[in-house]
TrEMBL record:
Lineage: Bacteria, Pseudomonadati, Pseudomonadota, Alphaproteobacteria, Hyphomicrobiales
Protein name (record): GNAT family N-acetyltransferase
Listed InterPro entries: Acyl_CoA_acyltransferase, Bact_Acetyltransf, GNAT_dom
The species this protein was found in: Microvirga terrestris
Superkingdom in the source lineage: Bacteria
PROSITE patterns: GNAT
């Protein structure tokens, strides 16, 4: 993890293509969506922000992983916002704490931008990963997917 940096995609727009490709393959391709849809969505992360924002983990110019902060990841729960989503680490870089670091940085980004609570959607096999990182179960929705949440740390007086 030592030589891995985590940057805002606005500062490293050269990684936009890799982010679109990996997020498309992992979460969108099997649902029949074209890569061009993701390419367009990823471009939105280059706008003024803070939402949406994509973070990239990289070792110099080598892409290692990504996570996004988006307004909504679950159409049936518009009252919940913002969300951490689209977490991906390259297969050869896994189990070194990079996924955990990306989730942590995404939550910090949300809290720094002023939101007091953040949400994420997890499959059953990933729940314990997030719970170990301090996220709490909020509710189970369709297909066994769970909404987890995390609150901003209390401010020191
Ligand atoms: C989920 C994902 C992002 C995790 O990335 P990662 O970099 O491997 O994450 P971490 O290294 O922080 O943690 C992964 C596991 O490695 C363990 N680990 C972390 N550092 C370790 C180390 N130095 N040695 C051994 N194990 C370690 C963690 O405890 C964790 O264990 P768990 O799977 O039992 O919870 C990655 O597997 C991925 O991209 N998967 C495909 C996409 C996906 O499923 N995204 C999440 C959608 S909810």
């Amino acid at each position: 993890m030592s030589s891995i940096a985590i940057s805002d995609l606005r500062d490293r727009p050269d990684f936009a293509k890799a982010v679109a490709d990996r997020v498309w393959r992992a979460f969108w391709k099997d649902k029949g969506h074209p890569l061009s849809l993701l390419t367009g969505l990823v471009q939105e992360n280059l706008g003024p922000g803070p939402i949406p924002t994509a973070l990239v983990a990289h070792e110099g110019d080598r892409f290692v992983g990504t996570v996004s902060i988006i307004a909504s990841d679950e159409d049936t729960r518009p009252q919940y916002t913002p969300w951490v989503a689209a977490l991906w680490v390259e297969p050869e870089d896994r189990r070194r704490g990079i996924g955990a670091a990306l989730v942590e940085r995404a939550a910090e980004f949300v809290f720094r931008s002023g939101a007091g609570r953040v949400y994420l959607l997890s499959g059953p096999h990933r729940r314990s990963f997030y719970e170990r990182l301090g996220w709490s179960m909020l509710e189970v929705i369709d297909d066994g997917m769970s909404i987890l949440t995390r609150d901003a740390p209390a401010r020191q007086a």
